[in-house]
């Protein structure tokens, strides 16, 4: 089994970085051999496997003598404990300038056990312009044996000056079949459950894994869609918006609560405080910093949870549009066929398109820090207006 076996649906991208990793190991070729360069950017839509490819590439570069990834190196990279690997990933809305400065400083160190020192930045699109300029200086004059691997949804999310200094590898949306096969093989679920999770996740690998292995996540998704289908009045829309926020909050809490407890326990243990023991005043500042980081992560998790709900609602109206256009071969929510048929006859394609636009607008507003409750209420009211207008014309 090689480090590339855990990836799916990205054969062209894998071939590019695999060839670079193989060339980088040439005795006399150096880092320019076979397409190897010091700065990489992996782009692709959410769930396409950007970070998975980044860490597979890092493993190949750090493995001694083989680009297939030896087992010991793979374990260290998976645990983020390899001495020549530095990772910057944030649970917050933005990456801070101090985090990037610290990473840039560590990039100047020579490799301790491997051929390279590998620096990975997940969600590089979360850097502000000022923060990006700190990184730019490191990309302009990198040490000979340092490799940067950035991940972002698209090249447009980064400054043009950074884009000009990286080699871009573009990922595509993997097929439902590819994701289902990966989930079935990796998570040990049956073929039917894997296909349903991959379809409902719209080929988002991480979400497909969660839907396949977490019954509560599946229940919350079903509740979201049934709630949207049951709106009949403006008051229903307002109540539904509040309920959707509760669902997103419960989803975010489920993701972060267990991790927060583990982090606090680990922090107390590392500080020498027994469980349930009194925290010395001198150590309380460190725990306050941890709590502040966790609060910021909770904020991002809530926003991510709301966005997942909006993506699910978008899939619902997309299915309605497919039925209105006379095709049902690619329905995401196949299990709701009766409800989808009923909705498709009560609205026009123009109203369905307006509903999809309303969902997209809500995503933009929330991303722009509009209060989520207001954005959701406006979205659901707009969708309701299109539905009731068609019903009124049918009378």
UniProtKB/TrEMBL annotation:
Keywords: DNA replication, DNA-directed DNA polymerase, Nucleotidyltransferase, Transferase. It catalyses: DNA(n) + a 2'-deoxyribonucleoside 5'-triphosphate = DNA(n+1) + diphosphate. It holds the Pfam family DNA_pol3_delta2. It comes from the Bacteria. Its EC number is 2.7.7.7. The keyword Nucleotidyltransferase applies. Residues 310-382 form the DNA polymerase III delta subunit C-terminal domain. InterPro entries: DNA_pol_III_delta_C, DNA_Rep/Repair_Clamp_Loader, P-loop_NTPase. Residues 263-285 are annotated as: Disordered. GO terms for molecular function: DNA-directed DNA polymerase activity. This is DNA polymerase III subunit delta'. It comes from Leifsonia virtsii.
């Amino acid at each position: 089994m090689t480090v590339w076996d855990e990836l799916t649906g990205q054969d062209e991208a894998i071939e590019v970085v695999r060839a670079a990793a193989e060339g980088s190991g040439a005795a006399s070729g150096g880092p320019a051999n076979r397409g190897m360069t010091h700065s990489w950017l992996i782009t692709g839509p959410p769930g396409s496997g950007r970070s998975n490819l980044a860490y597979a590439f890092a493993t190949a570069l750090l493995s001694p003598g083989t680009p297939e990834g030896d087992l010991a190196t793979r374990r260290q990279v998976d645990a983020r404990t390899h001495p020549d690997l530095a990772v910057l990933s944030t649970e917050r809305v933005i990456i801070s300038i101090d985090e990037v400065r610290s990473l840039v400083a560590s990039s100047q160190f020579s490799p301790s056990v491997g051929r390279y020192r590998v620096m990975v930045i997940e969600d590089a699109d979360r850097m502000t312009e000022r923060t990006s300029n700190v990184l730019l200086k490191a990309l302009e004059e990198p040490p000979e044996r340092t490799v940067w691997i950035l991940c972002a949804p698209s090249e447009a999310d980064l400054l043009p000056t950074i884009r000009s200094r990286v080699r871009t590898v573009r990922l595509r949306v993997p097929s439902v079949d590819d994701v289902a096969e990966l989930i079935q093989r990796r998570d040990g679920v049956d073929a039917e459950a894997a296909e349903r999770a991959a379809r409902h996740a719209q080929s988002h690998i991480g979400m497909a894994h969660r839907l396949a292995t977490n019954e509560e996540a599946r229940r919350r998704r079903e509740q979201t869609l049934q709630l949207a289908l049951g709106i009949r009045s403006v008051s229903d829309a307002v109540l539904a918006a509040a309920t959707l926020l509760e669902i997103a909050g419960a989803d975010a809490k489920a993701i972060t609560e267990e991790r927060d407890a583990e982090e606090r326990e680990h922090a107390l243990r590392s500080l020498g405080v027994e469980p349930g023991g009194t925290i010395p005043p001198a150590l309380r500042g460190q725990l306050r910093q941890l709590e502040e980081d966790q609060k910021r992560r909770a904020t991002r998790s809530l926003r991510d949870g709301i966005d997942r709900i909006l993506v699910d609602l978008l899939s619902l109206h997309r299915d309605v549009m497919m039925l209105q256009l006379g095709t049902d071969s690619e329905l995401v929510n196949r299990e709701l066929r009766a409800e989808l048929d009923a909705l498709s006859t009560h609205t026009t394609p123009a109203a369905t398109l307006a509903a999809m636009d309303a969902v997209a607008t809500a995503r933009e507003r929330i991303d722009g820090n509009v209060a989520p409750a207001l954005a959701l209420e406006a979205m659901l009211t707009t969708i309701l207006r299109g539905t009731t207008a068609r019903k009124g014309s049918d009378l």
